[in-house]
Amino acid sequence: MTAKKDIKKVVLAYSGGLDTSVILKWLQVEYGCEVVTFTADLGQGEELEPARRKAERAGIKEIYIEDVREEFVRDFVFPMFRANAVYEGLYLLGTSIARPLIAKRLVEIAAETGADAIAHGATGKGNDQVRFELNAYALNPDIHVIAPWRDWDLNSREKLIDWAEKHQIEIPKDKRGEAPFSVDANLLHTSSEGKVLEDPAVPAPDYVYQRTVDPEDAPDKPEVIEIGFDRGDAISINGKPMSPATLLTELNEYGRKHGIGRLDLVENRFVGMKSRGIYETPGGTILLAAHRGIEQITLDRGAGHLKDELMPRYAELIYNGFWFAPEREMLQAAIDKSQERVSGTVMLKLYKGSANVIGRSSPNTIYSEAHVTFEEDMVYDQKDAEGFIKLNALRLKLLARRNMNAE
After folding, report:
1. C-alpha distances in angstroms, 72 versus 20, 187, 291?
2. Active-site residue, 142 included
3. 99 an active-site residue?
4. Which CATH number among 3.40.50.720, 3.40.50.620, 3.40.50.150, 3.30.9.10 corresponds to the domain 4-68+95-179?
5. Does residue 19 carry a catalytic annotation?
């Protein structure tokens, strides 16, 4: 185990909020080390320059503030959506999928700056500590990780604020009292947990929702949009080509307007406990519906059903922090192979919380109107079905006879 005295420089995942501001100072006090800050613009919708100024006032010399929105959507969100990944049937993995990118940059910056360790602000109760650290170790097995929430005795909001005031750390005014809930946000979603949300029997207050209007207050008139796909990735809206992050931003606005993508979920954390979260994934919910729509006419039954069998395992790997694990990469290779001809356009109707596919077309369609028509056709002999049924019924008939004779 690395001793504190051996840590000379640490790269900290830094938001500029109360927790990471305290961690920054705590690292300087407890380790006597130099701190490098990394702040990622993942589309959380917050101004990041205040984080730079706070880091500068804390004496930080190396400050990394990076716009990684395009990389986030292109290299992490889109590959995940090719799999139609949802955790426990409902959660679109908005927080989970951001962690490997942050871990990747922490490790890279540590190498660039000659740092001995990285540090994060995840607590010892949640999933994020696992995600940050598993992904970091997968990229650098020798990296040292500091997780202050597992080491210090500042185990309450009151103690945290008292320590901050003692060390003259700026405290946001809304942090002086008990925060009503905790929020994580990026371009894909917002996640709200804790405090007023801890009792799963009590409906979430309206003010928890930040990215979507109440579906009841959404426009009374439906809106129809068309999303274009190429090899499983969305590339356009209403015929207008867009970059990955720009497209997701646009879909978020459609989802916000129509109250799409709200989820109240009690999930199973990797560490063993259940937790209740309120998620808003407006653009992602529309994108998932559209992607399944284009797959309906471009994927063979065998490939589509196999994808659906693999998906829960794939989603669980992302949720648990195994993005860079070989099994996730193996599954990704299979998923990406399935997407080679998943191209075309999908038409959706957006209305009061719903995103419903109402049309789809593709130059690679497998759909044959000639085969499925109820009218007379020249391509399918219905008599062929009799032999098909008899062969599939053979084992069932043998079983039935045995069971009848045994009675």
Report:
1. 22, 9, 19
2. no
3. yes
4. 3.40.50.620
5. yes
